[in-house]
Amino acid sequence: MLKAKITRLSVSDVRFPTSLEQHGSDAMHTDPDYSVAYVVIETDGGLKGYGLTFTLGKGTEIVVCAVEALSAFVVGTCLEEIVSDFRAFYRLLTSDGQMRWIGPEKGVIQLATAAVLNAVWDLWARAEGKPLWKLLVDMDAKKLISCIDFRYITDALTEQEALDILLKGQEGKRQREEQMLKEGYPAYTTSCAWIGYPDQQLKQLCTEALKDGWTRFKVKVGVDLQDDIRRCRLIRQIIGPSNTLMIDANQRWDVGEAVTWVTSLAEFQPLWIEEPTSPDDILGHATISKALAPLGIGVATGEQCHNRVMFKQLLQASALQFVQIDSCRLGSVNENLAVLLMACKFQVPVCPHAGGVGLCELVQHLILFDYISVSASLHNRMCEYVDHLHEHFKSPVEIQNAHYMPPKDPGYSTEMLEESVLQHQYPQGDVWQGHPGC
Amino acid sequence: MLKAKITRLSVSDVRFPTSLEQHGSDAMHTDPDYSVAYVVIETDGGLKGYGLTFTLGKGTEIVVCAVEALSAFVVGTCLEEIVSDFRAFYRLLTSDGQMRWIGPEKGVIQLATAAVLNAVWDLWARAEGKPLWKLLVDMDAKKLISCIDFRYITDALTEQEALDILLKGQEGKRQREEQMLKEGYPAYTTSCAWIGYPDQQLKQLCTEALKDGWTRFKVKVGVDLQDDIRRCRLIRQIIGPSNTLMIDANQRWDVGEAVTWVTSLAEFQPLWIEEPTSPDDILGHATISKALAPLGIGVATGEQCHNRVMFKQLLQASALQFVQIDSCRLGSVNENLAVLLMACKFQVPVCPHAGGVGLCELVQHLILFDYISVSASLHNRMCEYVDHLHEHFKSPVEIQNAHYMPPKDPGYSTEMLEESVLQHQYPQGDVWQGHPGC
């Protein structure tokens, strides 16, 4: 199967009209239409690989255009050729002498790289007949390392250090794998408290979630302080003092403002404040981290951190206490591996960003690998979960008692239902007919 | 003229086959085809505005796609409406609740924002009948401040501090304007030593440049140390000990490697090492700056610094000794104003990036404004110059005795010759017919 030659890459603009019900609304993204640039690669052996990157509606067509530009690097290549030197292939896509100017490794072109390489990883896992997490867990340490581009991060993590981490991760690996298959990976929920939800809805959703076994809850904040106080008080009352509360400002504040605002919410004992300011502001996050440490509130960020160089600095500057990797913003599994290993070296827990469309499906593979092969710890670790749009996937996530149960189907859980893709294609799909603005 | 309503925005993919002669080649961009996404906005009054962003060939079509997505914010708006609250208009483009996900303020979408807003600034300057630098120099300080989005930078520069800088800049402003009109703004040349040029060509070009009055020279380095030593020695021999030499690695190295490599070139006394590592690596640049300070070598960077938040941190971390703004990567004049003012506060000289297509034409306006109204100093300051492709512009730069002479035509010098645009449109233009890969 590894001999398969990639003969075709197609990409679709697939959008869900989530803004109609304020699902996913936050302080900066008030009307998201959860969307994906959806990639299918076909091979001469008949095997297909599926990949995606997540977007919020408008602009998806730009990412689609970028995927089309990258397809020239993929079509005509053998899977074996790619994975025999995946680092070189990664760099081929990210460091083309002409294309890198419009990045490099950031924004649209990096999102497109993620979509394309997610499809390649899906293809690889399918070719090996394993779910992606298992492909990674079983992979030889040196082979794993050979997938990572260490350019620009060797001052924080050398290849040898990365290898040492993976070798150390061998200890107890089988037991952790068994544990995951039995118990699953702990999750927290963001589904209860989007910023557009009225209090009554929030109350009802939290109460139901508690009954379903959820113990960790995230609230969107940042538009109005008095609203935030009221909402946080309400949720803390419902979930009680021992359950976990996190707050998320989605980049709403300047540095000083972030410190003042979060201090006003300290009485509700949030574990972390997520995205207090610009995702690019490493030093700002460091200042906020330092100011909030005495209050016992950590800083979490990463869903809009665009590459390993930014994560490296967030770690070097002690600018975050929770690393939130994203399966669709970083350059696929390759770059996520680099971040997981750096986080391990700097002893900062990884708590992935998920939600949107497909992000839960994808990132569960990475965090399972992190626990089984890298961090070997569940302390202060959990993976975001949002209960949306899973029904459009062929192998949707399975949550049991607020835990992600390890996927069993071969691949990266990236395949969408054909019918869903057709109906939601923008602008020609049925769902978008007669929709305002389409 | 300010009442003009924008009725149409069109954008073209315009590429020059510069890779054929290795013009513009460096350690990371070995075969650039200098290109632009070229924007024309039309108004109901007949006045037009021209804008562009610079690219390296492949991927220009992606930026064009992003410009098209942004045009919805522009078409139907009055110029007066835009400039009466330019900060709000800037944020409309950069912070749309759906579109910001594919940035925010970085990569493709920020390049497209630059192209669109450069056209708006051109239109504004034309409506006022002034070259852009003069529009800025004559503008009321409060009006200037109202064009800047201070979000995420108030911990480094408040509106009041920015205002104070501009008010202080009033002293001696008229004399400096007269001085510029007479002498022009000092430039340095990068035309002599692209990495793809053989020694003989390099020697000849340097010798000619010296005759033409050039005293500051930049050499591309970073592929092979022995080559770099040979090339630097050669140039230093030709230009002598008192002229200025700068070296530019175009992001080739990791942090440790940068320090070692540049130390090996210290004997040639470069004023700065430009882009030693990843443009995203603020802390890396700080480490390199600290290591090279005892050798008297500064760090310069900025041409791929994607927004004001990144420049803020480079300044806060003392990570650079020369700020290299770019007229087409930052969000047009609006964001460049923020950077010029921050650089002034941190007392770091601005030495703009130029070259490519149109970058010299545009950035000369910004650096003239910087000298006349902000920094009031020429110490360690100069603007890059590359002698390429100026013939395609309606108001090309005028260099006299290695100085940029202030443009006199109304606008931002962004208008290209219609014939040039037609011939170089990709892929349908005459120049690209029968070209390999087209």
From TrEMBL, chains A, B:
InterPro entries: Enolase-like_C_sf, Enolase-like_N, Enolase_C-like, L-fuconate_dehydratase, Mandel_Rmase/mucon_lact_enz_CS, Mandelate_racemase_C, Mandelate_racemase_N_dom, RHMD-like. Its EC number is 4.2.1.68. The keyword Transferase does not apply. The keyword Cell wall biogenesis/degradation does not apply. Belongs to the mandelate racemase/muconate lactonizing enzyme family. ENOSF1 subfamily. It catalyses: L-fuconate = 2-dehydro-3-deoxy-L-fuconate + H2O. CDD domains: rTSbeta_L-fuconate_dehydratase. It holds the Pfam family MR_MLE_C. GO terms for molecular function: L-fuconate dehydratase activity; magnesium ion binding. The lineage of its organism: Eukaryota, Metazoa, Chordata, Craniata, Vertebrata. It comes from Conger conger. This is Mitochondrial enolase superfamily member 1. Keywords: Lyase, Magnesium, Metal-binding. Residues 199-295 form the Mandelate racemase/muconate lactonizing enzyme C-terminal domain. SUPFAM superfamilies: Enolase C-terminal domain-like, Enolase N-terminal domain-like. GO terms for biological process: amino acid catabolic process; carbohydrate catabolic process. Its cofactor is Mg(2+).
